[in-house]
Amino acid sequence: MKKFVSIVTLVAILFTFAGVFAAQAQLSAPYGQGQIGYTAVVLCEELTVRQQHSFSAKVVTTLPYGSRVMVTEEVTGWARVVLSDSIDSQSGWVNSDYIVIDPYWFKTDAKTPVYAWNSLTAPKVALLDKGVTAPVLKIEGDWIVVSLRGAAGWIHMN
């Protein structure tokens, strides 16, 4: 009986999200914590990875926009990241203002306009092609804010 109730609840949730996020896109939930930590995405053009959580610490490497890393620890304003899934993987610290940790993901089903703010009369700042995937920074009613290569824009979901 519990299994049946769980399945019915899951189906109801899926239909609710299908109605809210109409046919123009797929919205995927955050991945949640994995074996190493949480997935995070770089939001700026180039993010510096340091040995310690300090701006004066030695640089380990830099990461380009859109890079995905695993966050294993957070200290005020800093996140410890692992750069790959291998045992010998490099790790370091990044300024957490420039990453989004465990985001929702938006994937377009068709060409999708992106607006400067949450109004259909706002200037369009981008037109995403079909199949583009972007991390979601915020959900506000029928609107979502997505990362656009160092900037952000609003997408209307109805």
What does it look like?
By secondary structure, the protein is mainly β. The chain folds into two domains: 2-30 and 104-156, Roll (SH3 type barrels); 38-101, SH3 Domains (SH3 type barrels, Roll), CATH 2.30.30. It is built from one helix and 14 strands, in the order H-E-E-E-E-E-E-E-E-E-E-E-E-E-E. It has one helix at 2-20, and strands spanning 25-28, 38-42, 46-50, 59-64, 68-75, 78-82, 91-95, 99-101, 104-108, 112-115, 124-128, 133-140, 143-148, 151-156. Strand 10 (112-115) and strand 11 (124-128) form a beta hairpin. The longest helix has 19 residues, at 2-20. It is elongated and about 45 Å long.
Described by strand count, sense and barrel closure, the largest sheet is: 5 strands, antiparallel
Shape: elongated
What distance lies between the first and last C-alpha atoms, to the nearest angstrom? 36 Å
Mean pLDDT, all residues:
83
- The CATH level-2 architecture of the largest domain is identified as Roll
Query: Within the largest sheet, what's the order of strands?
Result: 1-9-12-13-14
Which stretches are poorly predicted, pLDDT < 50 over at least 5 residues? 1-23
Order of SSEs: HEEEEEEEEEEEEEE
Number of strands: 14
Q: In CATH's first tier, which class of the largest domain applies?
A: Mainly Beta
